[in-house]
Amino acid sequence: MTTVRAEQDTVAWTVEEGIAWVSLNRPEKRNCMSPALNRQMMRVLDELEFRDDVGVLVLGGEGSAWSAGMDLKEYFRETEARGLGAVRQAQRESYGWWRRLRWYQKPTIAMVNGWCFGGAYGPLFGCDLAFAAEEAQFGLSEINWGILPGGGASKIAVELLSFRNAMYHAMMGENIDGRKAAEWGLVNEALPLAELKKRVTEVACVLMEKNPIALKATKDAVRRVREMTFDNAEDYLVRAQEAANSFDNDGRKEGIRQFIDEKRYKPGLGAYDKSKA
Ligand code: ACO
């Protein structure tokens, strides 16, 4: 029996103790990304971005997959049948939420529980950090069905992998497991599936102790400077810090005060107590 899932049910989410747990929710289709899912994900990201009760957003997948990439039927075949306008719209909707993730206000973590193919590299790279199950499988499978890794996937491969590994990964259409993905730099860490959520929760809790303005400035800075000359980066970072100060001068002053005057903590070993700011 074919499950017809309503658009609003293609993404599941809940907020618990500061963490927004968002999941691609088409497990019966291995969470492949249909136009409906792409639209719904943008709505969910909109809903959560500036909520005071959200400190970190975690992107996971329901069932055995994180995401089996683009929906070959709904995103490609059916959309192409409706002409160029429909194709461009579908591209805007998918690239749109991946871009949104790259510059999201809150820190984001990809929690890759299972299959991760092709187009799924978009949200994988969109998330600031990524943790995978050792059992997860990653692949640029585009070549296996006759296209190039588009939607940014080729770019992401060379951003995250060495040239040789990127080329091998893109040309061979072979999968790598979570452990190899960590070794290659596609994710931060791999650990047994049973321990994945606990580790992600731990990381999210550490992030939530940090100054949120500084975190946003930091994640943007790390992405921006990748494409700058050294001098441009130096200048950008001065301006970015000054801009951050105008939003949150007190936090930074408090961070200095608790270290220098109160000797309450050591920045080299942990974060200052935000609740005192
Ligand atoms: N597009 C459309 N439907 C998909 C996709 C997809 N990317 N992935 C899975 N499905 C559907 C299957 O057609 C099947 O539908 P049905 O129940 O109506 O027959 C259902 O999801 C379950 O899939 P199975 O293949 O039966 O699941 P299984 O667990 O055996 O295999 C696997 C999982 C390996 C992920 C397999 O589904 C697969 O190879 N999917 C395609 C992966 C891929 O190459 N994606 C495209 C990447 S390139 C890009 O994104 C541009």
UniProtKB/TrEMBL annotation:
The keyword Lyase is assigned to this record? yes
What EC number(s) is this enzyme filed under? 4.1.2.61
Q: Which SUPFAM superfamilies match?
A: ClpP/crotonase
Q: Which residues form a coiled coil?
A: none
Task: Give the taxonomic lineage as stored in the record.
Answer: Bacteria, Pseudomonadati, Pseudomonadota, Gammaproteobacteria, Cellvibrionales
EC class (word) = lyase
Kindly provide the name given to this protein in its UniProt entry. p-hydroxycinnamoyl CoA hydratase/lyase
Does Coiled coil appear among the keywords? no
Q: Which GO terms describe its molecular function?
A: feruloyl-CoA hydratase/lyase activity
The record's family statement is: Belongs to the enoyl-CoA hydratase/isomerase family.
Q: Which UniProt keywords apply?
A: Lyase
